[in-house]
Amino acid sequence: MTTVRPRTEQDRAKVAAGVHALDTQVRNGMLLGLGSGTTSHWFVRSLAERVQEGLDVVGVPTSTATRDLALELGIRLADLNDVPPLDLTIDGPDEIDGAGNMIKGGGACLLWEKVVARASHRMVTVLDDTKIVATLGRFPLPVEVVPFGWVSTRRHLARLFADAGLGQVRITNRMRDGELLVTDSGHYILDAHLDAIPDVPGLAAVLNHIPGVVEHGLFVGIADAMVVGHPDGSAEVRTFR
Ligand code: 5RP
């Protein structure tokens, strides 16, 4: 197993958040949802070190990438279908506001991430301090759609944004290696460049009504707390409820 070390200030902040989450949120015997993305993967690496020291946890991964990393590092895993509600999920946001609402899905894992978070008694998000914003929307909002009729679904989305008073929103197709990116569930991702989302719960509710939309990256009322890390290695917990 190769040891990966943080190289940038932002990575040091991500590591600090993960370690503080381990110290303050994770207990022996927990069933743990394991998030996706770089911050979550730093957390998984720190978790693996604790497991080697004797911590007993079982993880449920939110992506095939996190599954592969956890297995490589020797963390025991379970299928979500085979376990009771999880004690805790630890996952990272792309953006988070003061109320704990988040945009997620920058790594295209939003569907499994939302399912796992919702299957957990608590969800705690880990982040470096650059992810905190006054208003969500600068980060493009990922929307996961079924391949069938996806161009029509994209038109429907554009109409919905216009009807919601958000204007002519640019929607881009998420690509990887020159092809449409295919998610772990076989879907596509559309990214909506909204700039600012004035009514996050309102938009989250209507997005779920479009046929062809499987899930979207607005996580409203899901995070119970956030663990914010800083480049100097410090971190703190802020609770939302
Ligand atoms: C993946 C996600 C990630 O959790 C989110 O993109 C944050 O990633 P990172 O920690 O790399 O900034 O939602 O779908």
Protein described:
By secondary structure, the protein is α/β, with parallel strands linked by helices. The protein folds into two domains: 9-132 and 221-239, Rossmann fold (3-Layer(aba) Sandwich), CATH 3.40.50.1360; 141-217, Alpha-Beta Plaits. Helices cover 30% and strands 26% of the residues. A six-stranded mixed sheet has the order 2-1-3-6-14-15. Ribulose-5-phosphate binds at residues 35-40, 91-92, 94, 104-110, 113. Ribulose-5-phosphate (5RP) is lined by residues 35-40, 91-92, 94, 104-110, 113. Pfam families: Rib_5-P_isom_A.
Q: What topology does this entry show?
A:
Blueprint: H1 9-25, E1 31-34, H2 38-52, E2 58-61, H3 64-72, E3 86-91, E4 95-96, E5 102-103, H4 110-118, E6 120-128, E7 141-145, H5 150-163, E8 170-173, E9 175-176, E10 179-180, E11 188-193, H6 200-207, E12 213-216, E13 218-219, E14 225-229, E15 235-239
Parallel strand pairs: 1-2, 1-3, 3-6, 6-14
Antiparallel strand pairs: 4-5, 5-13, 7-11, 7-12, 8-11, 9-10, 14-15
Bound molecules: ribulose-5-phosphate (5RP).
Q: What are the distinct ligands in this entry?
A: ribulose-5-phosphate
If strands are numbered along the chain, what order do they take across the biggest sheet? Answer: 2-1-3-6-14-15
For the record, the CATH architecture of the largest domain stands as: 3-Layer(aba) Sandwich
The portion of residues assigned to helices is 25-40%
Rg on CA atoms, Å: 18 Å
Overall mean pLDDT score? Answer: 97
Major sheet size, sense and barrel closure? 6 strands, mixed
Q: What is the tally of helical segments?
A: 6
In total, the number of strands is 15
- The domain tally reads 2
Which geometry do the CA atoms define? globular
CATH class of the largest domain: Alpha Beta
Q: Which structural class best describes the helix and strand composition?
A: alpha/beta
Parts with pLDDT < 50 across at least 5 consecutive residues: none
Q: For the record, give the distance between the C-alpha atoms at the N and C termini, rounded to a whole number.
A: 39 Å
User: What's the CATH topology name of the largest domain?
Assistant: Rossmann fold
- Sheet-strand content, in percent, reads 25-35%
SSE succession = HEHEHEEEHEEHEEEEHEEEE
